[in-house]
Specification:
This protein has 212 residues and is mainly alpha-helical. It has ten helices and two strands, in the order αβαααααβαααα.
Length: 212
């Protein structure tokens, strides 16, 4: 269940968001980096960048997989709407995906559509967070968190989730063709609702901490 239901009494919740198109590009680079390591070939989603898909460009990979891959389909909404069991299962489906390197298939469970209602629920949960961070403003994020939490150690917070890889640093949305960037924004509206809100919440958080 939600942490808000399980934990009774005071609690602190924090999250870091990244510009959605840049995060999707990072996921593509992450999978390609892992595909080069034979020891990591059980990674969910690896089949989308190996075998017949090994030479797909980022644009081709996105077009081939957006409709079925929760990691690149309004993922931020799916991650935050934990009260909606149907789309929670899709956020977890990458771990159940059967297509690894050499596998006969590369399939996920059916991917239910993210609705405006889901985006609204995710936005409400985002607004309940105690602290907001932005990957684009990572150092400033850690500074504000340190101001809010005496003794906070920013070295304990990962800039992004690509443990052992440099795919995060290489994933700059400035490298994404304009047409593709527009398509990603159009096809992931819920993620961009959350991204816009996160930036406003971050600015308000900085003002509040600066005031006292």
């Amino acid at each position: 269940g939600l942490a808000e239901r399980v934990i009774h009494g005071p609690m602190l919740m924090a999250t870091v968001l990244r510009e959605p198109a840049e995060r999707i590009l990072s996921h593509y680079n992450y999978l390609r980096a892992r595909a080069r390591n034979p020891k990591l070939r059980s990674t969910p989603g690896l089949c989308t960048v190996t075998g017949r898909s090994a030479n797909l460009t980022f644009s081709e990979w996105y077009a081939a997989n957006w409709h079925r891959m929760p990691d690149i389909n309004d993922f931020e909404v799916r991650l935050l709407v934990t009260e909606e069991a149907e789309i929670v299962r899709t956020a977890e489906s990458a771990s159940q995906q059967v297509g690894g390197v050499g596998a006969a298939g590369c399939e996920w469970a059916p991917l239910p559509r993210v609705t405006h209602a889901h985006a609204g629920l995710a936005l409400a949960r985002l607004k309940r967070m105690s602290l907001i961070g932005l990957t684009d403003e990572f150092e400033r994020s850690m500074q504000t968190w340190a101001a809010a939490l005496p003794g906070f150690e920013s070295r304990n917070v990962k800039r992004c989730g690509n443990v052992g890889f440099q795919a995060c640093a290489r994933s700059d949305r400035a490298s994404i063709p304009r047409e593709l960037l527009q398509r990603i924004r159009r096809e992931n509206p819920g993620s961009y609702v959350l991204w816009t809100a996160a930036r406003a919440l971050f600015a308000a958080q900085e003002r509040a901490l600066g005031a006292g």
